[in-house]
Design goal:
This protein has 346 residues and is α/β, with parallel strands linked by helices. The chain is built from 14 helices and eleven strands. α6 (149-160) links the parallel β6 (140-143) and β7 (173-176).
C-alpha cells in the first residue's frame, strides 16, 4: 500500500512539473496542439486583452488546438521564452523584437502583424522648469528599461538636441526604472520627467502632477510609429502555418471590433487588467491614454527601421548596422486582408 502511495505521489509531482514548465512538447493529447501566446497586461496589447475576455483565439483555433495565454512583464523575458521554445506567438514592443532577431541571426522570430501605433509620451513635472530642450540639462529623466523602445527614443531625442547623458554638470541623467517605480519617483519629485508608454503617461499626468511635454507621435510621419506588434517563432510558423493564420484572423477581427466599439473594448481591457494585476485603471486615465493610441494590424514598418537605426547609433545593437530585411513575414496577414477587401500592408 505504501509503495502504491509513493508511486501515486511521484506521478502527481511529474504531472505538476508538466503544467509548470512551459517548454517541451506542444502536443496536448492526440492531434491537439497548444498555441502559447505571450502578452502584457497593458492597453498597447489591446487585442490580446480583449481576445482573452472574448475567448477569441480559442474560438478561432477550434477544438483541435488550445490557445494558452501567458502574461509577461518585460520584452526581454518574452524573447528568452521564444528562444527556449516556450512561446509560439507574442505581442511585444519593437526594440525587444529587433534585439531577438539580431541575436538569433534572424532565425528565432518574424513579425507577422502590427498591434498598436502611438501611445508613448515624455511627461515632465509641472514644477520642473522644463519648457524647452535646453532645460533638460542637469535634470533627471526616467525610462522603463535600459535599451527598451522608450529608452531608445529618449536617448535619441536628447542626442538630437545636443544634450549629453551623464551625471556631470549640464548633463541629463537617464534613469532606467520599472514603470510603477517611475510613478513613485515622479510623485516624490525625485525625477523631473519620464518617457513612458501608456497608460503610464496618463497616470503621471493625473496622479503625479505632470504634463505632457512631448507626444512621440509628433516626431513621426503622419503621427504613426509602432509601439506593439505580433511576432511568431519561425519554427512554429514552419510547422503550423494554419494555426498562425487562425490566430491572425482573430487578431484582425479584434482590431476591427476594438476600433468600432471603443467603450466596450476599454471596459473589457480594464476588467482583464484588474484580473491580471488586481488593480484596474481609473476611467479618466484609461480615456486619456487610449486617446493617444491607435489599435492597428499595420506594423508601420518604416518606424521600425527608424527605431533600429537609433538603437544602433546609441550602441545598443553592436558594431554592425543591423539588416532587418527578413524580419517581416506578412504573407498570412495580407492574405487575410485581401480576402476581406482590406488594403494589404507593407
Amino acid at each position: 500500500m505504501n509503495k502504491l502511495l509513493v508511486a501515486a505521489a511521484a506521478l502527481v509531482v511529474i504531472a505538476l512539473a508538466g503544467v509548470l514548465i512551459l517548454g517541451g512538447a506542444q502536443e496536448d493529447g492526440p492531434g491537439k496542439t497548444q498555441v502559447r501566446i505571450g502578452y502584457f497586461p497593458n492597453m498597447l496589447h489591446a487585442q490580446a486583452l480583449v481576445g482573452r475576455a472574448q475567448n477569441s483565439f480559442q474560438d478561432a483555433l477550434g477544438p483541435d488546438a488550445e490557445a494558452v495565454m501567458i502574461p509577461f512583464n518585460a520584452g526581454p523575458s518574452v524573447i528568452e521564452a521564444m528562444f527556449a521554445d516556450e512561446l509560439d506567438i507574442a505581442y511585444i514592443g519593437p526594440n525587444p523584437a529587433i534585439n531577438g532577431y539580431i541575436k538569433s541571426k534572424g532565425e528565432a522570430l518574424s513579425i507577422i502583424a502590427g498591434a498598436a501605433s502611438g501611445g508613448a509620451v515624455l511627461v515632465v513635472r509641472n514644477d520642473s522648469g522644463i519648457g524647452s530642450p535646453a532645460d533638460f540639462a542637469g535634470k533627471r529623466v526616467a525610462s522603463p528599461q535600459l535599451g527598451n523602445t522608450q529608452d531608445v527614443a529618449l536617448r535619441a531625442y536628447l542626442a538630437g538636441n545636443n544634450l549629453r547623458i551623464g551625471t556631470g554638470d549640464g548633463e541629463v541623467e537617464v534613469i532606467p526604472t520599472a514603470n510603477p517605480d517611475i510613478l513613485t519617483l515622479f510623485q516624490k519629485k525625485e525625477i523631473d520627467g519620464a518617457w513612458v508608454p501608456e497608460p503610464w503617461g496618463a497616470r503621471l499626468v493625473q496622479e503625479g502632477g505632470g504634463r505632457v511635454y512631448l507626444d512621440e507621435r509628433t516626431l513621426w510621419p503622419d503621427g504613426k510609429f509602432v509601439t506593439a506588434h505580433v511576432i511568431a517563432s519561425r519554427k512554429f510558423l514552419r510547422e503550423h502555418p494554419d494555426l498562425v493564420e487562425k490566430i491572425l484572423s482573430a487578431h484582425v477581427n479584434l482590431t476591427i471590433w476594438i476600433n468600432g466599439h471603443p467603450q466596450d473594448a476599454k471596459a473589457q481591457m480594464n476588467a482583464q487588467i484588474m484580473d491580471l494585476t488586481s488593480k484596474e485603471l481609473p476611467a479618466a486615465v484609461l480615456d486619456e491614454a487610449f486617446g493617444r493610441c491607435e489599435i492597428t494590424y499595420d506594423p508601420v514598418s518604416s518606424s521600425l527601421e527608424g527605431s533600429a537605426r537609433s538603437a544602433y547609433e546609441l550602441g545598443f545593437l553592436g558594431d554592425t548596422e543591423p539588416d532587418l530585411a527578413g524580419i517581416y513575414n506578412l504573407t498570412a496577414l495580407n492574405g487575410i486582408l485581401r480576402e476581406r477587401g482590406l488594403g494589404a500592408v507593407r
